[in-house]
Write a structure and sequence with these properties.
The protein is 88% helix and 0% strand. It is mostly helical. It starts with a helix and ends with a helix.
Length: 142
Amino acid sequence: MNSESIGFISLVVGLVGFAASIVFFVLGRRTEERIQDLLEKINAAIQNWQGQIMNSSIELLESRVEIVGKRVALEEAKAKQAFLAELSARIKFLVEGLPPEKFMPAQSHQLEVLLKTFESATKGSLSSEALERIIFKGDEQQ
């Protein structure tokens, strides 16, 4: 073989190698894009799955008897506190708001005694905020 044919063959082999590298680059790029798309779909599916597991776990924890019982007790305490505040306001209105001549002295005295007894009995009770802190502090310890 002469040097011209070796030069021509080298040129052809170089061009074929260059073309092959471009083809492999394009194919590699497409494959990378497909793999990236697939990884994003897998990641989204995993996040969805983890979110469902966390939601189920939260629902299970919230449905525990202890937690439901504490929430019921808290709501009951809030309702009792609201009732006692309303009762106190009504008793005060009856004792202080109406003119004494509208009441017989015995009724007025009884209402005053009832108000004093009520106020002394409710002074020691916990507020709903304090009761909430106690209940939720117990939840954190469990």
